[in-house]
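Aim 2 progress update. The chain analyzed this quarter is reproduced below.
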Amino acid sequence: MKVLLENARVIKSHQVQKADVLVENDRITQIQPEINVEAEQIIDVKSQLLMPGLVDIHVHFRDPGQTDKEDVVSGSAAAVKGGFTTVLTMPNVDPVPDTPEKMTAMVKHNQTAGSLHIGQYGSITKKRTSEELVDFKALKEAGAVAFSNDGNGIQTAETMYQAMLQIKEVGLPLAAHVEDESLMQHGVMNQGTVAEKLGLPGITELAETAQLARDLEIARNTGAHYHVCHVSKARSVELIRRAQRDGVHVTAEVAPHHLFLDETMISMDNPMMKMNPPLRTLEDRQALLGGLLDGTIGMIATDHAPHTVEDKAGSMKTASFGITGLETAFPLLYTKLVKPGLCTVEQLVEWMSIQPAEIFNLKAAGQLEVGDVADLTVMNVEDEYEIKEADFASKGINSPFIGQKVYGQTQLTMVAGKIVYQREG
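Predicted structure tokens:
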């Protein structure tokens, strides 16, 4: 089947160019200023942005085990509505993918129920919260694309050391949720004057930075690819920057909410502002953006964490951590970074597509050249719209960004040549 996308502003080779794009079956076969060819489907893109499909290496689909919050079907619908064509799902599910049999079953379920490319993390330890390492080689052979215990940090240095040694041998990244549980003290937001004013228990920055410093030294010693999830502190950015300068194989991600929200925006006990790591300070936000701009942080990942209405009700003391993010990520980033001139749209595509695909060795993702798999996204960045609860495809509506007006609404998402989302109207 041939699909012709006409009159697009195509983002490729780090620049925007006017072009038509021809897709035949699952491949891009032409990118030219004008293409005259018969096609089964011709779509006038109307000068909107056409870019490689977005890539999110950090999502929670809750499937299996918590499908009242999200499942592969609803998570996929949210992803493609947000312009994503590839996501990697975290292993904090039940059962945990800690054996080849469980991994095989999850990979098969992702493929049959999903509407985009879904890569599956394997856990680092059995049941994800123990200190017993999994069989990394067997899990890779069963389909694992990386390893993480996300939701929990690895608490002992010896376990992390052995994990890095073994994961290095299989050639995949280790993605770390850096959190020293002994320093959490049942906190629900950043430790500081705002928490004190609200009478809420705080989380010290040391819960993140102390474990990060430990892990960076282990990564230095082992040579493993160590990836830092959802960086939230200025000190963390500096630790990562120094390690990279020293030749440590460390990469990092930042979530949109840590770029755009901070503790001063929490004026009351509001569960929608409860996430882990917590929202930090304005200075931390500025350092995170600086780390993104100078390359210390190589990608943006949503940490999409949907919850039921009940789980996010009441007080921050009892509500679940997390924010739904797949459908709001690109518009928030475009509106708050590109529109004010803090970065270019080409840089945004680097952080949201090209670099996550390269860093995690996702060979079919983040590409937009003739011969590549046709994973494409079309975005309308000219018209403003409001983020509305009723418009979410995700089961989770737990977003503090509801009501904000943004630019960058997904018009079309194509996965392997198949249109999996097209906005009506």
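The mean pLDDT is 98. The longest strand covers residues 2-12. These observations will guide the mutagenesis experiments scheduled for the next reporting period.
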